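To the wet lab folks,

You asked to see what we're planning to order before we commit. Fair enough. Below is the target structure as C-alpha cells, and below that is the sequence we designed to fit it. If anything looks off to you, flag it before the synthesis order goes out.
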C-alpha cells in the first residue's frame, strides 16, 4: 500500500475508536455541530426552584451564558426563580453529574439581587440553563445572556445584552437599553427613553413614550406609535415608520425608507428609495441614485441629491427646494413656493388653483412642462437657450427671440417681476392649461 493510503486508513480507524468511546460514554467528547449531530444522545432535564422574600434591593442582575431567559413582572412582593438545566449526553448519570456542576447562584447583596450561572469547564452547546423568573413590576433589571432567547414583560429601568438570540420586551415602566445581534428584537410599551443596538437584526419597536435611538446594520427597522423623536442609524437596513409624533432622523443605504403619519423627517441616505406620506412639518432629504415619492406634506421640503426621480403630490408648506439631475421630477397639486435647480431630464409642475406662490425653475439640458389650472392668469416668464417654447395659453404672451434665446412674458405689467420663472438651456418649455 502507498503511504497516503496507509495514512488514510489510520485516520479512519482512529476516528472510529473515538466515535465508539463517545457513544458508549467511555469518553466525554462533544463536537459543537448542533444538538442533533449525535442523534441518539438524549436530552436530560433537571429542575429546581428558588424564592426570595422581602426585604430585598429593587435592582436585579441576571447573567446566563447559554439558554433562554423569561422574566415576568407580577403583583407579588417576592422573587421566584425556576431553573431548568438541560444536558445532552449518552448516559443520564453523567448528565446528572454535569448538571450538578452547572451552578445557578442566587445571592442577595446590599445593592442588588444577583442570579448567575456558573458553568465551570462546561462551555459546550449541549449544556444549557433556562431560567423563568417572576419579579415585582417596579424592579430595575440588568440582563446578560450569550446564546438563547430573552423574553421580558415588566420592570422599571432595564438593560439587556444578548449576544446571539431573540429579544422580546414589553411593559417597561421607564428606560430600556437593548444590545443584541442576528435575530429579532421586539419592543413594545416602553414608558421612557429607549436605546436599541443590533447587528443583522430585525428590530420592531412599538408604543414608546420617550425618545428612541436605534443602531443596526444589514437588517430591518420597523417603528410604530412613538410619542417623541427617533434617531436611526441603519446601514443597509430597510426602515419603516408610522404614527411618530417627534422628528425622525434616519441614515441608511441601499434599502427602502417608508414613513407615514409623521411630524417631520431628516434623512441622509445613499441609493435608498424613499416614500413619505402624511407629514405635518418639514422634510430635509439628501439622497442619490434612487427615487423619492411624497404625498400629503404640510411643511417645507428640502431635497438635495443627484440622479433622483422625484414625485410629489398634495404639498402645502411654505417652500419646496429641490436640487437634482438626470431623472425626472413631477410635482402635482402644490401651493408652496418652489425653487428648483435641475439638469438632464424633464420636470413637470402642476400647482394647485389656490394661492399659487412664486416658482423658479433653473434647468440645464432639461425639459419643462408647466400646467396651470384653467382660467388662471399669473405673471410669468419662460426662457430657453437653444430650445423652443410651446405656449398653449390664451392670450398669447410677448415673445422675444435673440442670439439663440427664446423668451415669452405673459400677464406682466410694466416693471413687474414674474411670479413664475421658467429657465432652461438646450431644452424645450411647454406651458399649458389642464385639460
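Sequence we intend to order:
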Amino acid at each position: 500500500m502507498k503511504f497516503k493510503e496507509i495514512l488514510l486508513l489510520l485516520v479512519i480507524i482512529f476516528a472510529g475508536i473515538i466515535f465508539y468511546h463517545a457513544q458508549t460514554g467511555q469518553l466525554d467528547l462533544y463536537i459543537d455541530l448542533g444538538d442533533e449531530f449525535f442523534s441518539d444522545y438524549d436530552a436530560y432535564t433537571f429542575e429546581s426552584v428558588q424564592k426570595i422574600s422581602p426585604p430585598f434591593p429593587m435592582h436585579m442582575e441576571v447573567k446566563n451564558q447559554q439558554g433562554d431567559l423569561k422574566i415576568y413582572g407580577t403583583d407579588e412582593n417576592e422573587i421566584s426563580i425556576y431553573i431548568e438545566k438541560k444536558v445532552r449526553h449518552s448516559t443520564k448519570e453523567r448528565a446528572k453529574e454535569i448538571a450538578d456542576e452547572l451552578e445557578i447562584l442566587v445571592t442577595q447583596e446590599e445593592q442588588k439581587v444577583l442570579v448567575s450561572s456558573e458553568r465551570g469547564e462546561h462551555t459546550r452547546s449541549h449544556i444549557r440553563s433556562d431560567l423563568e423568573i417572576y419579579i415585582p413590576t417596579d424592579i430595575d433589571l440588568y440582563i446578560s445572556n450569550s446564546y438563547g432567547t430573552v423574553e421580558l414583560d415588566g420592570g422599571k429601568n432595564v438593560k439587556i445584552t444578548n449576544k446571539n438570540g431573540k429579544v422580546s420586551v414589553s411593559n417597561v415602566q421607564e428606560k430600556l437599553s437593548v444590545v443584541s445581534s442576528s435575530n429579532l428584537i421586539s419592543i413594545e410599551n416602553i414608558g421612557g427613553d429607549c436605546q436599541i443596538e443590533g447587528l443583522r437584526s430585525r428590530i420592531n419597536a412599538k408604543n414608546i413614550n420617550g425618545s428612541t435611538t436605534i443602531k443596526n446594520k444589514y437588517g430591518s427597522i420597523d417603528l410604530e406609535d412613538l410619542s417623541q423623536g427617533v434617531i436611526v442609524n441603519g446601514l443597509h437596513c430597510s426602515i419603516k415608520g408610522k404614527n411618530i409624533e417627534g422628528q425622525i432622523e434616519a441614515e441608511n443605504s441601499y434599502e427602502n425608507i417608508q414613513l407615514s403619519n409623521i411630524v417631520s423627517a431628516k434623512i441622509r441616505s445613499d441609493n435608498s428609495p424613499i416614500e413619505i406620506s402624511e407629514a405635518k412639518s418639514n422634510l430635509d432629504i439628501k439622497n442619490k441614485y434612487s427615487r423619492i415619492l411624497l404625498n400629503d406634506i404640510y411643511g417645507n421640503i428640502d431635497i438635495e441629491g443627484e440622479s433622483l426621480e422625484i414625485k410629489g403630490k398634495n404639498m402645502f408648506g411654505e417652500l419646496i427646494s429641490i436640487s437634482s439631475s438626470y431623472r425626472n421630477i413631477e410635482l402635482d397639486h402644490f401651493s408652496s413656493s418652489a425653487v428648483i435647480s435641475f439638469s438632464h431630464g424633464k420636470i413637470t409642475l402642476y400647482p394647485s388653483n389656490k394661492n399659487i406662490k412664486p416658482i423658479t425653475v433653473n434647468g440645464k439640458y432639461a425639459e419643462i412642462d408647466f400646467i396651470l389650472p384653467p382660467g388662471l392668469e399669473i405673471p410669468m416668464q419662460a426662457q430657453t437657450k437653444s430650445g423652443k417654447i410651446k405656449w398653449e395659453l390664451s392670450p398669447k404672451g410677448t415673445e422675444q427671440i435673440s442670439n439663440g434665446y427664446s423668451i415669452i412674458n405673459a400677464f406682466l405689467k410694466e416693471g413687474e417681476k414674474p411670479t413664475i420663472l421658467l429657465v432652461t438651456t438646450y431644452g424645450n418649455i411647454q406651458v399649458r392649461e389642464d385639460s
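Structural context that might help your review: Residues 314-435 form one domain. The chain is about 5% helix and 60% strand.

Thanks,
Computational group
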